[in-house]
User: Fold this.
Amino acid sequence: MILFAAPIFSLQLLIDGILIGAIFALAAYGMALVWGVMKIINFSQGEFVILGGFILFTLFKAGVNPFVGIPLAAIALYFVGLILYHIVIVRIVEQDLFISILATFGMAILLQQLMNQIFGADVQTVNPGLDTWFLFNNAITVLQIKVVSFFIAIILGGCLAAFLKKTRLGQAIRATAQDTRAARILGVDTNKVYATTFALNAAICGAAGALVVMTWVIQPFAGLAYTVRSFMIVIVAGLGNVAGVIFAGLGLGAVENFAGFILGAEFQTAFIFSLLVIILVGRNFKLRLRRKYLK
Amino acid sequence: MKINTIYYVLYGGIVILALIAPWLLPAYRTQLAFLWIMVVFALTWDTVGGQMGYNSFGNIVFFGIGMYVTAVVQRNIHYDIEEYVHVAGRVESLTPGEYLTGLFLGMGAGAIIAVAIAAILGACILAMGMRGQYFGICTLGLGVAAGELANGWEYIGAGSGLVTPVFPDGLGHRGVFFYYIFFITAVILFLILKWLYQGRFGLAINAIRDDEDKAEAMGIHTTRYKIVAWCLSAFFLSLAGGGAGHLIGFIDPTEVAFAGATFGVWMILMAILGGKGTLWGPVIGAVIFHITQEVTWTYLFGWQRVAMGALIVAIVVFFPMGIMGWMRERWPERFGHRVEEAQAFSTSKGGG
Assistant:
């Protein structure tokens, strides 16, 4: 196999995977935030990502510098998130999980089909006009934009973590995550916290999507794969484990890149969803071993 | 006694209406055949999702398996595979006898394979105690993965799909033939479920929905019931799939067979619209949904799927109890519930 014959090629796949994995980790961080604070698994996560990508794509077509477009996409998605919160999420936030999964799933279909109608079903990308680095006698090529987006993703994640840690609103969000009722009794406006959390998550996804469209490609129907990736990362890392989310994200990026190379591009989607099933079954098996019986 | 007579008249009326429907509306025979597929969809989803509380997003897997197995059996016993694949089904057509043998053998094989797969998956997922949102997302992964695998598998036509044999002339109208196949499937399914829900099985799966740990502690073999319920829904879904593949005539891996974005979502939507966890709810939901969809679909010019997303959100957010749930809340005495003043407050908050 070429992977063993040419270890340098494996390194290429690893680097590409890890660089893209940072974006997955960013989206997963948002999902973990919403899940932890609002107890909602947001199934439209991937559609927020893709929508962010399309917004950057549109801005780029209109002549905006793509790096200026990243915050603009994030701001646009912040308001999309806020609107969706006030129309839909506010009504399902304290209902059982099935309702929230199905409602956000419906939102996902709605957004996906709207994007399909507005932007068309074609695969789109934005070329930010950066160079490529050639390392080890041209054996490894690294697109500069991938490195840049890696660091942007890490910085954004860091900013969000600092926001949650330091600011008053961030503390209110964390308090709500720990105990909603207690937070409410102590004067936290949980409705506002929920709205901010959901909108922040959407903004993060928008930024992630803006990075995706520059480093990779987007397509209206690619959203579900990002939702599933985020979900897998959160499951593997565990809720509330920020370091875990980062490592799981980078790991997933690498694994996916290797699998895509070994299995072929036509099985890449199948691989992601099969991996989801395997991870869930494995997680359950682990929990089962831990279960104690009285004999 | 009097209530019973009304019920018999109602049942008889529905059956007679259903039997003559293809001749009442000859232009819509295929759509009417699909109506019964929708009923099967909603009822099978509701067995696991509504009655047992295991909300599955991936029941479409069994539909697709039944469809593919039936088509492959039909192809393999009558044709040379190489030749068939290359001319895409345009080889000499089958006699009615050959067609029927292939179809029924295929549907039987499809049902056996689907039940076997459901049992294996049940042993991996349900028997391990996966529940709630994890079960839902796991089944979603199964549905998409199955479609993508079929999309890459050359033997069953990969992404270019599989064409089923041409419907032979001697069997009458294609729509009518399949109309009765689906009608019989749906009626048998309905009667089996009616019988099951009245007995121990129904109580057991309802107990699993309400509190699985408690049900287990009370001595119910929860794993056994869960797997049986899932296999039951797999069996009927695969039968529907086998027929549907031949009715449509062309099997696309992700748009027809493992069509999670359409059929897969519709089955949940229909069950919820009608009222999940009831016997008649899914039937009513399927009929209303299918008729509305067929009537409005063509007027929406490509915006149907957008409307579908909006509809899901609207139904789930504003009408989660469904039609039957709403009626139960409105006229509790008709459903045999005695509402006492003190209780009324708490039940009305629970949403049926």
